[in-house]
Amino acid sequence: MIEILAISGSLRAASTNSALVAALARNAPPGCRVTVYDALGRLPIFNPDEEGERTPAEAARLIEAVTRADGVIVSCPEYAHGVPGGLKNGLDWMVSRDAAVDKPAMLVHASPRSLFARAALAEIMRTMSFALYDGGALEIALLGKKPPETDTILAEPTNVLAMHNALSAFADFIAGR
Ligand SMILES: Cc1cc2nc3c(=O)[nH]c(=O)nc-3n(C[C@H](O)[C@H](O)[C@H](O)COP(=O)(O)O)c2cc1C
Q1: What CATH number should be reported for the domain whose range is 2-175?
Q2: Is 15's C-beta closer than 6 angstroms to any atom of ligand 1?
Q3: Using a 6 Å cutoff on CB, does residue 68 contact ligand 1?
Q4: pLDDT digit string, tens, across residues 91-134
Q5: pLDDT, position 136
Q6: Where does the chain cross the membrane (predicted)?
Q7: β 2-8/32-37 pair status
Q8: Atom 24, ligand 1: which residue's CA is nearest?
Q9: Can you tell me the distance from the alpha carbon of 155 to that of 58, in angstroms, rounded to the nearest whole number?
Q10: Axis crossing angle, helix 147-155 with helix 157-175, rounded to the nearest 10
Q11: Domain coordinates of the chain in residue numbers?
Q12: Whose CA is nearest to atom 2 of ligand 1?
């Protein structure tokens, strides 16, 4: 079983990015399990003085979850042309560890226009030595959609197939490493 950890960079209750990662978890192909990490909002602000034996429990849980996973998927909004602070904070807790090193990762997108955040996140994750999957990116346009419409869009057969195919391609990428 290929274990994938999916992280949404949005803390909003009605987040489209969180809806997308939840839908990925529901549509995982056989042999692949997607688990959602939803505790970015509980992480303390990263401080290098709090590493090693002083690592806060919530940060240790994130690091452990990424370490255990065979691959990581991230879906994140763009704030002021950048990566949301909560997600960057979560990634910062992993910078000086081994969790990210050679860890397969795939970015998926819920907003077609968030090109600055996509580029910045890819640069950050490559710098952290994630093995970024650069096959065709999954993009499902959910920008501005409210939950009922988001759910309807994510349940459309073409989108279910797109999620299934993206996960299969990522699982192949993981298995081939
Ligand atoms: C404070 C703030 C700043 C934003 N800045 C941008 C931006 O620079 N570029 C952009 O495309 N969208 C921007 N947006 C819109 C969000 O990226 C967009 O609504 C996204 O779909 C929200 O994701 P979510 O539904 O997962 O919370 C911003 C939204 C907020 C709240």
Answers
A1: 3.40.50.360
A2: yes
A3: no
A4: 999 999 999 999 999 999 999 999 999 999 999 999 999 999 99
A5: 83
A6: none
A7: parallel
A8: 15
A9: 33
A10: 70
A11: 2-175
A12: 79
